[in-house]
Amino acid sequence: MKLSLEEKERLESIYQSYLNNEKILKMNEVSMHRGSNTYLHSFRVAKLAIKRALRRKKYLDLESILIASILHDYYLYDWRKDKSKKKHHAKKHPFIASSNAKRDFDISDKVCEIIEEHMWPFNFKCFPNTKEARIVNNADNTVAFKEVLTSIKHKKKRMNKYMDKIQTLF
Ligand SMILES: [Fe+2]
Ligand SMILES: [Fe+2]
Fold this sequence. Notes:
About 60% of the residues lie in helices and about 0% in strands. It is mostly helical.
């Protein structure tokens, strides 16, 4: 997909509005795989999902991909600290994230669906039904896999590097 300058600027401005949003910044407090957190993780997923979508020839709804990627793990609790949330976290959190996102942001049903379908195949019954949902699902799996594999040894250095990289979408 080729984007006009105007389309590129529009996506970048959506990205920036979430990156600096007070509610989204709260995701920094929710830890994730190997020293990452849901804020860093989600913006990494967003960047990768958009990069992969742009490689495709067919039309894709980039705005939905972008917003759903940013909000896909917007569940806002730390199951590592609150053990009562640990049970069925993998299956439940896409629905909690989608309902939090609907409460806090003006998002479409399509974005909610992409969020709810992002845990396939762990959540086997929720297959990603659209091309957009499959792109987000794949990007999430790739980023999560990389985060799990990364050594915890140089955590701080790595976090700073990730932080630099997510400052802009393009
Ligand atoms: Fe997730
Ligand atoms: Fe994720």
